[in-house]
Design brief:
Two copies of one chain form a homodimer.
Chain A: H1 15-22, H2 26-38, H3 45-56, E1 61-62, H4 64-74, H5 80-92, E2 97-99, E3 107-109, E4 116-120, E5 125-129, E6 146-159
Chain B binds a DNA duplex (25 and 25 nucleotides) through residues 9-10, 13, 15, 42-47, 63-65, 77-82, 84-86, 104-106.
DNA sequence: ATTTGTGCAAATCGTTTGCATCTGA
DNA sequence: TCAGATGCAAACGATTTGCACAAAT
């Protein structure tokens, strides 16, 4: 899994050092570089920094605004526009998936395996539901010419 | 069910005539007046006109923009803001329900019974799925202090 | 060197709000 | 009469885009 950081990029570059200084663990950065390369994205500083934030702490559900604040506080300064662009790029290559629950904001989920969600409306908070704990029964046949590519289940919660 | 139109509102009013002239069938208008009154909303011209459009043709999934165009073409001129307000009022009193599938637009569904949806992404189109044809299995217990008030299932479709 | 990404500000889109005016009970 | 609705325009928040600059291969 983990590999020596030098294996992930060209030697003699100060890219490695620059990257390492931006995140807590140099190993994390190199993991991210590997991950980005595997996804076909060039591992730029911004992408490495953002993916480190996103993927370091297990499953997360973030809005662009949330990630933007997090990044600007602790890491490289990024513009909000770039955060949006990056989140969409990550989504396109399958590193993230987008969850439509709120209408007003877009949530991005670092868990890209099949699963569902609780949505706590008054806290604007998402919680994963493993497909083990909840599965959808029979699904009707889609209209002609179309196929199912995803099934989203949102269990909406309110304070008792 | 249906009742004579004069029974629905004060006699001597030209409200009835005005309403009747705005929709194909005066009976439809009076049905709408009844429906609105039952929901605790005053049957104003705008509300009667919009509800006639919404509820005359069976189950529909509309955006504010769609209803706005429809109304302005065929009926009383309404402002887009009023369409939004009216859709929300209808939702609050349970005549409509709001479906969050697209993130960018809000859809309003005239079917307010429990059911699910196909969502055809490339056409931005919703199709009802009766709960008879699809049901969700066991649902995990919600976190403490919260209760489930709705479960949304969206089956996303793509062209084959 | 060439291609690809980034920052910024301005543009856009859907939606909401404030307020003066109108209308139904 | 008078609370409640409506229209309009302006305000708004989230997201996207255009373009000059910077960085990665």
């Amino acid at each position: 899994m983990k590999q020596s950081s030098s294996s992930a990029f060209r030697s003699g570059s100060d890219f490695e050092e620059a990257m390492a200084s931006r995140v807590r663990s140099p190993d994390l950065a190199s993991d991210m570089i590997t991950k980005l390369r595997a996804a076909g994205l060039r591992p730029t500083r911004t992408r490495v920094a953002l993916s480190s934030l996103l993927f370091a702490k297990g499953d997360r559900h973030v809005t662009a605004e949330m990630l933007f604040e997090e990044a600007n506080q602790a890491e490289v300064s990024v513009s909000l526009a770039t955060v949006y662009n990056t989140l969409h790029q990550f989504t396109e290559v399958g590193l993230l998936c987008q969850v439509a629950v709120d209408g007003s904001r877009a949530y991005f989920d670092t868990n890209n395996t099949k699963h569902h969600h609780f949505y706590i409306e008054d806290r604007h908070e998402l919680i994963d539901i493993s497909p083990t704990n909840m599965n959808v029964g029979k699904v009707p046949v889609p209209p002609d010419g179309y196929e199912i590519f995803r099934i989203d289940v949102v269990v909406r919660l309110r304070r008792k």
